[in-house]
């Protein structure tokens, strides 16, 4: 069985992120110089401009819904998503501070609320790509 939904394009900058996801670890860049998270991956810290102080730091995978939208229809070449309708895409504020977008599952989208607690899981889409997603707790 093959994965029919679109997958992320892996670049030199994003490859470490996807490599960690494949191991079921959520890691983001972190600048040790200015003590700030960097999301999405960049070649330098957007706060201090340094390149030599960035490392990949692991996050807990716990957070809460900061914002979300409910997708009720798909367009263009997105037929593979049709069976999932409706589904929720949330802006998740991780307990360490950074925010990231992802699917929120484990509940009817209509039952989601801002502030709901969520936890990370990974969907193994292909042998190379594991997608980080969140479940309502």
Order of helices and strands: HEEEEEEEE
| Side-by-side strand order of the widest sheet | 4-5-6-8-7
Shape: globular
Mean pLDDT: 95
Can you give the helix content as a percent range? Answer: under 10%
In the CATH hierarchy, the architecture of the largest domain is Beta Barrel
**Distance between the ends:** 30 Å
Strand and helix layout:
Blueprint lengths: L14 H8 L4 E5 L4 E3 L15 E5 L3 E10 L15 E8 L4 E7 L11 E8 L5 E7 L1
Parallel strand pairs: 6-8
Antiparallel strand pairs: 1-2, 1-3, 4-5, 4-7, 5-6, 7-8
Question: What does this entry look like structurally?
Answer:
- This protein is mainly β.
- The chain has 2 domains: 11-58, no CATH class; 60-137, OB fold (Dihydrolipoamide Acetyltransferase, E2P).
- It is 6% helix and 39% strand.
- It has 1 helix and 8 strands.
- The protein has one helix at residues 15-22, and strands spanning 27-31, 36-38, 54-58, 62-71, 87-94, 99-105, 117-124, 130-136.
- A 5-stranded mixed barrel has the order 4-5-6-8-7. Strands 2-1-3 form a 3-stranded antiparallel beta sheet, with helices on one face.
- Strand 7 (117-124) and strand 8 (130-136) form a beta hairpin.
- The longest helix has 8 residues, at 15-22.
- The model has no long low-confidence stretch (mean pLDDT 95).
Short descriptors:
OB fold (Dihydrolipoamide Acetyltransferase, E2P); mainly beta; five-stranded mixed barrel; single chain; globular; 2 domains; 137 residues
Provide a concise account of the structure shown.
This protein has one helix at 15-22, and strands at residues 27-31, 36-38, 54-58, 62-71, 87-94, 99-105, 117-124, 130-136. It has 137 residues and is mainly beta. The mean pLDDT is 95.
């Amino acid at each position: 069985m093959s994965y029919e939904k679109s997958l992320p394009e892996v670049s030199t900058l994003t490859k470490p992120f996807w490599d960690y996801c494949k191991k079921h670890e959520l890691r983001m860049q972190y600048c040790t110089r200015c003590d700030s998270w960097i999301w999405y991956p960049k070649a330098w810290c957007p706060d201090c401009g340094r390149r030599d102080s960035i490392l990949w730091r692991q996050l807990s995978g716990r957070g809460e819904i900061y914002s979300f939208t409910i997708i009720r229809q798909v367009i263009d070449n997105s037929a593979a998503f049709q069976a999932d309708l409706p589904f929720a895409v949330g802006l998740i504020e991780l307990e360490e501070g950074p925010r990231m977008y992802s699917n929120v599952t484990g509940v009817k989208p209509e039952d989601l609320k801002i502030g709901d607690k969520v936890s990370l899981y990974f969907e193994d889409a292909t042998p190379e790509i594991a997608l980080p997603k969140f479940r309502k707790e």
